[in-house]
Amino acid sequence: MSFLQPAGQVIDLGVNIDHIATVRNARGTVYPDPLRAALIAEQAGADLITLHLREDRRHIKDADVLAIRPQLATRMNLEAAVTQEMIDFACKVKPQDVCLVPERREEVTTEGGLDVIRYQKEVEAAIRQLKGEGIRVSLFIDADEQQIAAAAAVGATVIELHTGRYAEASTAEELAHELERIKVGVRAGVQHGLRVNAGHGLHYTNVQPIAAIPDIHELNIGHAIVAHALFAGFENAVREMKAIMVAARLGVSYAAKGQ
Predict the structure, then answer these.
(1) Which of 40, 90, 128, 155 is most buried, most CB within 10 Å of its CB?
(2) How buried is 105 (Cβ within 10 angstroms: 0-12 exposed, 13-18 middle, 19+ buried)?
(3) Residue ranges for the binding site for 3-amino-2-oxopropyl phosphate?
(4) Looking at the predicted structure, is the pLDDT value of residue 109 above 60?
(5) In contact, 13 and 221? CB cutoff 8 Å
(6) Residues near 161 by Cβ (< 8 Å), separated by ≥ 6?
(7) 3-state secondary structure of 121
(8) Considering only 8-17, 188-197, 222-231, which range has the smallest mean pLDDT?
(9) Is residue 79 among the annotated active site residues?
(10) Each residue of 137-156: pLDDT tens digit?
(11) Which one is catalytic: 79, 160, 178, 240?
(12) Residues 156 and 139: beta-carbon distance below 8 Å
């Protein structure tokens, strides 16, 4: 048995396939196919497939979600805004997980966590509807103790901590500060009885400290894997990310080829 295939689950990797669709849509073709990417990712060790159906359909489209859902051997984590259109669509598709995220049309990518305190009623209603269909609900939030407490109060069972500020840190001091903030957020989530995941901006050279945090169950990573796949191939890119994560959690040295 190697550290790449340990006994029991160590840490889950959710492979986000949004940017496979971005490349496809850039030329209006039918390739590369997000479904094919999802199946290759599973074969390479992904524990789940993450995809974000944005309101403007800039990458993943409704047809992608409908095609991918029945083909997965693992599970689907559908990211969606807190709108009635998206919640109704999720209830139709019935992914295993829905992660509720903030969304602004003008942003390049999700720039921060969902403000659960401000949108408490809307989030609570969305969670109630999704849970009624047997869907587990996660909230994509900042590592802020008040937001974490609010997530537990509205009925979420999972939170995904936004690691963007950590990923964008430009100095060693800032990096250390943001890593500690995430660790505090993880502890707060556990204290509130929540499953804690994390993601955003993680890549092959900054993921290790996050993956090493014992109470993080899952990391969702997309752009870095798709970018590395241009040089290493998609299957290899997924395998390498999973290996780095597992090694970090087990405290095993792993020489990453990286980006």
Answers:
(1) 90
(2) exposed
(3) 16, 27, 201, 222-223
(4) no
(5) yes
(6) 113, 141, 142, 143, 182, 185, 186, 189, 196, 197, 198, 199
(7) helix
(8) 8-17
(9) yes
(10) 999 999 999 999 999 999 99
(11) 79
(12) yes
